[in-house]
Amino acid sequence: MIYIDLPDAVRVLSTLSVLTFLVSSLSHAQSQTFNFEEGVSNYSGFKDTTIFSESENSGGGTSGFFSGTINNLDFEGNKQHRRALLSADLSMIPSHWTIENVALTLRVQTSGDNFGNIDYSLHAVSSEWGEGDISGPSAGGFGAPAETGDATWLSNQHSISTWTTEGSDYTALASATAIAGTAGNDVTWSSAGMISDVQQWLNSPASNHGWCIIGALEGTRKRVKKFYSSESNNYRPRLVVTAHAPLSLASEAYIDFSAGTPSGNGEEIDPVDTIEKGLTLIQAEGSLLLSPGSTDETLTIYQAVTLYRNGSGGSVTIGDQAEESFQNSGFRTRRSTASRP
């Protein structure tokens, strides 16, 4: 356990007051918008491709990627489906920032049978996959034989590893759904699910495998759309992310220690308050350290943490699950204005 021993003179506020202050501080936080588009401002982190149900072909070098079902049948009379894979390198966003909003915009390049509105869903992909640079005939609509490492219908990386499930490994629950219309129209996805995805990818970059784009009418012939890809000369995919830095609470940030009645040193009594992830607490002059260190250390909360009242000395315990994150950190107990580092 890690303990924060507070001086007797520290003013105790109610939990409601604490939460009100925290919410107020967060609501006035400055945000920054990050634009991800291949070739813009020297960004080169997009990858996208098409996978084809009837073959081990790849299509990562085409100026557009496909999703839906084409008119053709394969040699066994089966329908031929296409799914799109898309991801973006998010490393320009500082780690541990809080994601506020996410929007992905694609432009429809062609629409099978000139058919109109179709729902398309984004599903977070759980396995690494390769883009490759294969194009193929028919404007890339059938791809071409995959090279080592390319994503295909059966393989996340051709000749290296296969998907657990044919057609890519993705979450069953869609992160977002939006309507795509005819050629020349834009479609934009934006949702809480996408915010959750991007936050996860930012916190754990190795888990960022992007989304699989699947049409609601997959299985219906001639219901396929081609979207401009990152290899296109124009109308490339655009991902816009709004985020803010961890909030620094100066000495006006209080924790309520009035809940519960201490009954003995070292004993966890009642939960006092929960500090949400994304907050940075800065040690104030005169306060005690969580562990040995200098007075200018900071404590950044990367996960929700519950504080417990501990013993009769006015100390507080931070749960075991947070201990490693908070080594050699300080904690502010006095009051001033919230700011960002």
Detailed description of the structure:
With 341 residues, the chain is mostly beta strands. It has two domains: 2-29 and 247-326, no CATH class; 32-244, no CATH class. It is 7% helix and 35% strand. It contains two helices and 22 strands. Strands 2, 3, 5, 6, 7, 8, 12, 13, 14, 15 and 16 form an eleven-stranded antiparallel sheet that branches. Strand 10 (155-157) and strand 11 (161-162) form a beta hairpin. The longest helix has 13 residues, at 15-27. The radius of gyration is 26 Å and the shape is globular. The chain starts with a strand and ends in a 23-residue tail after the last strand. Mean pLDDT is 73; it is low at 1-28 and 247-341.
Quick overview of this protein structure:
With 341 residues, the chain is mainly beta.
Task: Describe the secondary-structure layout.
Layout: E1 2-5, H1 15-27, E2 32-36, E3 46-52, E4 57-58, E5 64-73, E6 79-88, E7 98-111, E8 118-124, E9 144-145, E10 155-157, E11 161-162, E12 176-180, E13 186-189, H2 192-203, E14 211-215, E15 223-228, E16 238-244, E17 247-249, E18 268-275, E19 279-282, E20 298-300, E21 305-310, E22 315-318
Parallel strand pairs: 17-19
Antiparallel strand pairs: 1-22, 2-16, 3-6, 4-9, 5-6, 5-15, 6-14, 7-13, 7-15, 7-16, 8-12, 8-14, 10-11, 18-21, 19-20, 21-22
H-E string? EHEEEEEEEEEEEEHEEEEEEEEE
What is the count of DSSP helices, taking H or I runs of 4+ residues?
2
Number of strands: 22
Estimate the mean pLDDT confidence. Answer: 73
Q: CA-to-CA gap between the ends?
A: 28 Å
Q: What can be said about the biggest beta sheet? A: 11 strands, antiparallel
Indicate the overall shape.
globular
Our estimate of the beta-strand percent is 35-45%
Label the structural class. Answer: mainly beta
* Unreliably modeled segments: 1-28, 247-341
Q: Which percent bin holds the helix content? A: under 10%
Number of domains: 2
Q: What's the gyration radius in Å?
A: 26 Å
